[in-house]
Amino acid sequence: MKKYINPPEQTWKELISRPVFDNSRFVPNVQAILDEVKLNGDQALKAFSKKFDQVEIDQLKVSDTEFNLALETISIELKTAIHTAAANIEKFHIDQLPRLIRTETMPGVECWQKSIPINRVGLYIPGGTAPLFSTVLMLAIPARIAQCPEIILCTPPDKNGKINTAILYAARLCGVTKVFKAGGAQAIAAMAYGTESIPRADKIFGPGNQYVTTAKQLVSSQGIAIDLPAGPSEVMVVVDRETPAAFAAADLLSQAEHGADSQVILLTRYPEKLEEIETETLKQLEQLPRKELAAKALENSRLISFTDFNRCLGFMNAYAPEHLILAVAEPKIWADRVTQAGSVFMGYYTPESAGDYASGTNHTLPTNGFANAYSGVNMDSYLKKITFQEITPNGLKNIGKTIEIMAEAEQLMGHKNAVTVRLNTLSHGIK
Amino acid sequence: MKKYINPPEQTWKELISRPVFDNSRFVPNVQAILDEVKLNGDQALKAFSKKFDQVEIDQLKVSDTEFNLALETISIELKTAIHTAAANIEKFHIDQLPRLIRTETMPGVECWQKSIPINRVGLYIPGGTAPLFSTVLMLAIPARIAQCPEIILCTPPDKNGKINTAILYAARLCGVTKVFKAGGAQAIAAMAYGTESIPRADKIFGPGNQYVTTAKQLVSSQGIAIDLPAGPSEVMVVVDRETPAAFAAADLLSQAEHGADSQVILLTRYPEKLEEIETETLKQLEQLPRKELAAKALENSRLISFTDFNRCLGFMNAYAPEHLILAVAEPKIWADRVTQAGSVFMGYYTPESAGDYASGTNHTLPTNGFANAYSGVNMDSYLKKITFQEITPNGLKNIGKTIEIMAEAEQLMGHKNAVTVRLNTLSHGIK
User: Fewer CB near the terminus (10 Å): N or C of chain A?
Assistant: First the structure.
């Protein structure tokens, strides 16, 4: 892990850079997969499953029998944990539902904005060694709160053609309408274009490997909505003199274990903390089952101190971390000055993993500095905000002249005329 | 104008199709422009101005002298109209500002979502024959309400190197920080990458020709945020038996005059209205200065009737119009069933041009069916929603077990450990 003390501003561009994740070399392969699914639908999906998942899938849709089996096999302990997390996630997201407010901007001119759920959302959940059932909660619960009429989910089958039971359990609990056995870029293609079994989704959500994220990027450039641009996960941990090194080290490692391309940054005003936390991190690393991945991520990682508080804040916001842990005694002082971050964890007893699983906030967040302009998944992600307006005859008399003058100044006489014909009708006393 | 009576559902796919706007043939040229601006900055912008705008630009930034001149030359009548519109737009958008709500999801676990303005937004305003100063209001006013620290604007100069005075007036009124003389794909490149004069923007807004929209699409696929995917403008006008044909015709034409690739759709339950409104439309067409453009747009246009109310509603939502005018006696019955549209205009006296200019709602809206998943520009477009959480030691005791169980089930022991080290510290009575 590299250490930096008071690095000058001209080096920041390098210090905030992420591990390169260039998807361009995946584009030709992924485009071929998209084209194949668009052309051959289910048949293409089954062929890809045979090729990539090494399994022959007869029916893409998960059956009720499979769901029921999952419900039986999952432990009560895990069920309880999932229910607790789901309740918190639901509580937090319900509170973020937008209100409908009517505004009379002028007498007789009433405008409002109504939130309407996206009709069909498609969720992607990766398979592989770590079954991300928590992401099912994070993506499906707000969809259900938004009242999206259809919530479909694609996830790859294992070599026996099965889906992880915790994923099925979470899907059923959170109101997912249908689950399909399809993974990778081909699953994204299926949800983007539709196949015989899998309906076309209006918006596609979820994490994935570089094939999946490249596929999302490609369909997004065709106008199909996606949740967020993707990049490897990252955390910035801010510590003060009193922060227990064990806490900071555990937080850094909880991010580093995600993958070799994860990045973890320690930031502090106290240079003596850099070595203390590095030592503790390397010690804890030895205990981790995924220590090889985590060790690689630590190579991309940085321990940085700035004696000056404002420069510390400046660097924090310039980095625009996906996760920002303010493991300091007075986190509010820092939190009030956060302008760019995905999700912020305040104080010594708020680890990132709380937000990853169970506290209630969403864990689908902007990475790679995208927090400069993007929000994490939230209720807005599932809603279209449609504006409405209703103008009375008197209202049009009040606002009509303004519209006519502006339309004429823009040389759009048709726009002007749409007002004029109405005002003429009113002044002639016709209905 | 083609007329359809009770078209069967299998023909809808064709009937909801938009005029083809394939940008792919622009990609190589636009990519070359982007690369050139990335490499040579201001110098490239000036060279492109010479080439495309036929003018040599000495200073890209509009000077105070130029602003002051604009303030003097614009008529009082237009100033008053702009002020009235600006006040309405401000009133409506302020009411849409999200609240901050704190949620205690469990005792000791507090979560909230805070809206923070995007640091620097870049607005593009096209030049050409129709100076779209109304778009300055629509894009800059919500940015100012959001308190974006920097609002920059690019717009092409005319052959004398000048910017339209109404655009400058609106920019100054709405708190635009800096205006630059740059147009086309090169202006988008400048805001995406930054040049010596023009700072890099975090998000790019605004309409434009196919070069501009292709440039926005290309920079967006590089992760630079944009407002909306683009397409030609469109309106659907719904009429009943009593709707004055003159109103419907004027509304259809106010959209058709935008450009040859605009599309206008009439929808009704009364087949006898199709011919009546077609006749009136062709009559009014003759009076329009932009009648050639409008006539071309009418070729892409359709007059459709469904006797069945539900099929009428079904078609309305399947089309997902950018603008939906419900010029009917009881618009609420229809409006309550709208699920896909950009902006809805209710009743006989609510023309689309009210929303285009002055009623208060935004006129930057999803075209091309994108209303299935996208919202028009609104306060969210200028804000990042950052989640925060703060967990007390007791809170972590309440939620810790849940996190540990879920992390273990996902085989992410580092995530679990970030909780365990803290719970251990608490149970040993250490601070």
Answer: C
Tell me whether residues B223 and A91 touch, CB distance under 8 A. no
Residues B308, B417, single domain; the answer is no
Q: Are residues A57 and A187 in the same domain?
A: yes
Say whether A250 and B421 touch across the interface (CB within 8 A): yes
Radius of gyration (Cα) for chain A, nearest Å?
26
Is the pLDDT assigned to residue B430 strictly greater than 60? no
Nearest CB to A254 within list B101, B254, B414: B414
Q: Which residue of A has its CA nearest to B351?
A: A418
CA angle B344, A118, A372 (to 5 degrees): 95
Q: In this complex, do B111 and A77 lie within 8 Å of one another by their Cβ atoms?
A: no
Length of chain B: 431
Asked if B391 and A246 come within 8 Å (Cβ–Cβ), the reply is no
The residues of chain A scoring below 50 in pLDDT are 431
Average pLDDT over residues B199-215: 95
Residues B52 and B87 placed together within one structural domain of the fold: yes
**A42 and A179 together in one domain:** yes
Check whether residue B53 and residue B159 sit in a common domain: yes
Q: Which residue of B has its CA nearest to A127?
A: B410
Residues B220 and B304 in one domain: no
Chain A residues in contact with B224 (beta carbon < 8 A)? 373
Q: Which residues of A touch B242 (CB under 8 A)?
A: 431
- The token pair at A275 is 């070595």
- Domain of residue B159, CATH code: 3.40.50.1980
How many helices (H) and strands (E) would you count in chain A?
Answer: 16, 14
Of B205, B227, B249, the residue that ends a domain is B227
Residues B391-412: tens digit of each pLDDT: 999 999 999 999 999 999 999 9
CATH code of the domain containing B401: 1.20.5.1300
The predicted structure's pLDDT at residue A230: 85
> What mean pLDDT, rounded, does chain B reach?
95
CB contact under 8 A, B403 and A103: no
The answer to whether B323 is a known catalytic residue is: yes
Q: Tell me the C-alpha distance between B426 and A244, whole Å.
A: 12
Among A129, A154, A141, which Cα is nearest to A85's?
A: A141
What does the pLDDT average to over B155-180?
95
> Residue A258 catalytic?
no
Q: Which of B375, B401, B419 is the last residue of a domain?
A: B375
Nearest to B227 by CA among B87, B382, B363, B120: B382
Residue A11 lies in a domain: no
The answer to whether residue B119 is domain-embedded is no
Question: For chain B, how long is the longest CA-to-CA vector?
Answer: 87
Residue partners of A404: CB distance under 8 A and separation at least 6 = A416, A419, A420
Assess B295–A contact: CB distance below 8 Å, yes or no: no
Selected residue of A76, A79, A92 to mutate for chain B interface (largest B Cβ count, 10 A): A92
**B31 close to A (CB below 8 A):** no
Query: Domain limits at A48?
Result: 23-98+124-227
Number of folded domains that form chain A: 3
Instruction: Indicate whether A108 belongs to any domain.
Output: no
Q: Is residue B261 part of a domain?
A: yes
Please indicate whether, in this complex, the C-beta atoms of B129 and A411 are within 8 angstroms of each other.
yes
Q: Does B427 touch chain A (CB under 8 A)?
A: no
Q: Does B342 have pLDDT greater than 80?
A: yes
Q: Do A344 and B407 touch (CB under 8 A)?
A: no
Put simply, whether A145 touches B (Cβ < 8 Å) is: no
Q: What is the DSSP string of B291-350?
A: HHHHHHHHHT-EEEE-SSHHHHHHHHHHH--SEEEEESS-HHHHHTT--S-SEEEESTT-
Q: Say whether both B212 and B235 belong to one domain.
A: no
CA-nearest residue of chain A to B339? Answer: A116
* Same domain (yes/no): B175, B44: yes
Which residues on A lie below 8 Å from B425 (Cβ)? 244, 246-247
Residue B19's pLDDT band, with cuts at 50, 70 and 90, is: confident
pLDDT given at position B127 = 86
Out of B99, B352, B407, whose CB is closest to A357? B407
∠ CA A61-A67-A68, nearest 5°, is 145
% of chain B at pLDDT higher than 90: 91
Position B431 pLDDT exceeds 60:
no
**B315-320: average pLDDT:** 98
